[in-house]
Structures are given as C-alpha cells and as structure tokens.
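USER: Fancy drafting a protein?

ASSISTANT:
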Amino acid sequence: MKPQTQEKNAWKEWFAANGARFLLCARQWTRTLADAEDVLQEAFLRFWRHQRHLPGDPAALLITSIRRAALDHVRKETRRTRREQATLVLEGDPISWFEPAPNEHDHLLQEALEKLPDAQRQVVALKIWGELTFEEIGRQLDCSPNTAASRYRYALTRLRETLSTSHYE
C-alpha cells in the first residue's frame, strides 16, 4: 500500500472515531445541525490541506479550526442577512414577504422596546424570540442567571408602564 493511501486511511479511521465529538463541538457555535456539519467539513478540509502532517494528536488544532470555521460561517451569514435586508428596502420602507402584516399597535411596542436600556432589551429578545432560559441568557451575555432574570423583570415592568401610558389601550 502506498504511503499516501496509508495516511489517507489512517485519517479516515481517526475521523470515524472522533468525528461525533467534533460535530458536537461545532454545534456549540452554530444555529443548526446542518450548519454544524458544514462548519465541521470546512474545518477538516482546512486542517487537512495545511496541517495534516503535524505529529501527535491533532484534536486541539482541529478544534481551533472548527471554531474559526464557525466564526467565518457566522460572519458570512450576517453579511448575507444584511444584504437580504437591504434588498427588501423599497422607498425607505422595509418590506417583508414572509411575516404577517403589522398590527396597528406594533409600532408602539417597537418604540417601547427601543426605550429600554440595551441590557434589558437584549434579555427580552433572547428570552422571548430566542426562547432561551435565564441560564443560557447569562452565558450569552456573560452575567449570572439571576441578573438576566432581574433585567427581564425590570424590562417587563418598564414595558407595561410605557404601554399603559401610550395609546395602546
């Protein structure tokens, strides 16, 4: 058997034995399993092209490659989303083809949300639209779950106050 074929088979065996844990790792930095699979494939290809001949266990370097591929993926998706949003703007008004028509009171809610401090607005968004627990929110925002819960309570109180004094009723 040629040395190149032996090396290729050794990598296949190594990846078959370790691939699942790297997929779990990639999943921590991505939104979906499909994105994690794409990130893992990209990371492994990058690693294979540039660092496959390094001695020892390649796990740490491959995890670094996975993290970088995930960050690249997030950046690419963010740019794509911005481009899509920009194309949806027509004469200054955003048009959304896949969302229900706005409720007559939606602008009041949007204005009330914009009045919240950033920290409270972030918690509301992660809790309501992200459907995260306070523990998950705490990890995302680098604060304790209790702090996240407090910010959420304060935000809801401010929203109630703002909306009750507006023409919402």
